[in-house]
Amino acid sequence: MAYPRSQAELVRRARGERTQKEFATLLGVEKSCLSRYESGKLGAPTRVIDACLALIADSMDADMATTAVQEALKYSRMVVSLLDSRARSPA
Fold first, then answer.
1. Does the pTM exceed 0.85?
2. Distances (CA, A) of 10 to 53, 76, 78
3. 19 is a domain residue
């Protein structure tokens, strides 16, 4: 995932699949302001930028946790497979 390089990208990325109306309500701003933040026509207040950064960080943490669990499962399966193959081998 590429890092956002502008306020507009940051706000759009943080909004994700939410509608502008839903996200504006979550942030406590007017939908028209959110639209201008996303288009880069209006600078977002610090609290909005901070909220967007927190949402993205939380999503990245969740992605990393998922990746870590997937890696652990992969290695667990490898160990089980090795143990299983040794158990089946004649002594």
1. no
2. 7, 37, 39
3. yes
**Dihedrals φ, ψ of 27, to 5°?**
-80, -15
- How confident is the chain (91 residues) per 10-residue block, as mean pLDDT? 86 96 97 96 95 89 68 77 75 60
DSSP letter for each residue of the chain: -PPP-SHHHHHHHHHTTS-HHHHHHHHTS-HHHHHHHHHTSSPPPHHHHHHHHHHHHHHHHHHHHHHHHHHHHHHHHHHHHHHHHHHHS--
Q: Is residue 84 part of a domain?
A: yes
Q: Which residue is it, tokens 């090795």?
A: 82
